[in-house]
Amino acid sequence: MAKMAASVVEHGQDAFKNLFKYYKRRNPPPDFSNVIDFSKGVSTDKVYPAKLNFAAFSERDARMVGLRPVQAWRAFGLEGYPGFIFISNPFLPDSQQYWVKQCLKVYPQKPNVCNLDMHMPAAETADIWERSAELIRKKNGGKSEPRTLLERLRWVTLGYHYNWDTKTYSAEHHSSFPADLSRMSQHVAAACGFPAFSAEAGILNYYRSDSSLGIHVDESELDHTMPLLSFSFGQSAVFLLGGAKREDPATAMFTHSGDIMVMSGASRLLYHAVPRILAPPTVAPTSPGLFKQSHRLQQDISEDSLVHNIEEGDWEVCEHYLRTSRLNVTVRQVLGPGQAFPSQTLNKVTLSSSRGSYHQDESTEDVNIKTKKMRNNTDCSTES
Ligand SMILES: O=C(O)CCC(=O)C(=O)O
Ligand SMILES: [Fe+2]
């Protein structure tokens, strides 16, 4: 294992699994020097500039969702992964804070679904933010302080709610997809050549400093011609991108706050994983620019802008939470144009194949048996 850093692309049946374990390891810590860092631009011969559609939407439309004009984005491709596009933080200064606040305060609200619903009465998960905000503000970092509901949040689903047991989506289990996130996703997809993309399902992952996400492929969507979009906020992480088979070797890259990954075309169904969050005390690149003194949006905000300044008190909670956490939002189109869900029986038989319950580790403290059972199916995500 010690040799891993010298040759990141290990071959052999357990290549991906070994790489996952290597970057997850705490003691001794891994060597991060071979992890691709797109914030440094074309830093290796595996990285090349990606072509975007500059005319996909106007500068004003971009600003309305907190994005820079497409011409200003730094987008990259990765040798050997056609259809994979990495956009290095295209957000306007400070506008990430709006999206962070949405992920922590707004999207966990009902009727959206979260991990806490699996083992708590609905009345208790109806107001996660309200029950947590004051307590988080008062925290002073002591280890014995009980964790708030917000700190126990692991995932939230939006739109067509992903069913972790059957690994399917269904027409019956659906709530309206947030308009702001839908608009932002459409813009990103259009810039990457998918103007018809429609945001229909979202999975939000809430990572603490010791969380990881096991090796998996996102194939439950019925339409794979549309891209999968992934937005990261907060602490940086190591992301592993593998091949079409679980055993294929993987490439390690950092994701920093504000980064967007687009998995499309031949890369839409590649295996991937998040072995490590780089929250303190790990000595590794941090996410610059997120924890500025001022959280006021620097650009003029027009009245119809979706992204607006957030209240000081709200940001205080978000900032506290993000000191040791990472948020990831994946946005998916589930159905192709004119496509409908097959009947339920057919749906189960044809789709429950290999996605697996890959989602993150949860400390035993807040796992009930049902959730734990689900997670026991995971590959690497339950290993420590
Ligand atoms: O957290 C990430 O970067 C990846 C999330 C992911 O792969 C998923 O939700 O399917
Ligand atoms: Fe995924």
From TrEMBL:
Subunit structure: Monomer. Interacts with DNAJB6.
Cofactor: Fe(2+)
EC number: 1.14.11.33, 1.14.11.51, 4.2.99.18
InterPro entries the UniProt entry points to: Alkb (IPR004574), AlkB-like (IPR027450), AlkB-like_sf (IPR037151), Oxoglu/Fe-dep_dioxygenase_dom (IPR005123)
Domain Fe2OG dioxygenase: 195-335
Cross-referenced PANTHER family: ALKYLATED DNA REPAIR PROTEIN ALKB-RELATED, NUCLEIC ACID DIOXYGENASE ALKBH1
Cofactor-binding details, from the entry: Binds 1 Fe(2+) ion per subunit.
Catalytic activity: N(1)-methyladenosine(58) in tRNA + 2-oxoglutarate + O2 = adenosine(58) in tRNA + formaldehyde + succinate + CO2; an N(6)-methyl-2'-deoxyadenosine in DNA + 2-oxoglutarate + O2 = a 2'-deoxyadenosine in DNA + formaldehyde + succinate + CO2; a methylated nucleobase within DNA + 2-oxoglutarate + O2 = a nucleobase within DNA + formaldehyde + succinate + CO2; an N(1)-methyladenosine in tRNA + 2-oxoglutarate + O2 = an adenosine in tRNA + formaldehyde + succinate + CO2
Pfam families, A to Z: 2OG-FeII_Oxy_2
Localization in the cell: Nucleus
GO MF annotation, one: class I DNA-(apurinic or apyrimidinic site) endonuclease activity
One GO cellular component term noted in the UniProt record for this chain: nucleus
Signal peptide stretch: none
Keyword entries, A-Z: Dioxygenase, DNA damage, DNA repair, Iron, Lyase, Metal-binding, Multifunctional enzyme, Nucleus, Oxidoreductase, RNA repair, Transcription, Transcription regulation, Translation regulation
Protein name: Nucleic acid dioxygenase ALKBH1
Chain segments carrying region Disordered: 352-384
GO biological process, one term: DNA repair
Broad class of the protein's primary localization: nucleus
Organism name: Scleropages formosus (Asian bonytongue)
Sites where the protein binds Fe cation: H216, D218, H272
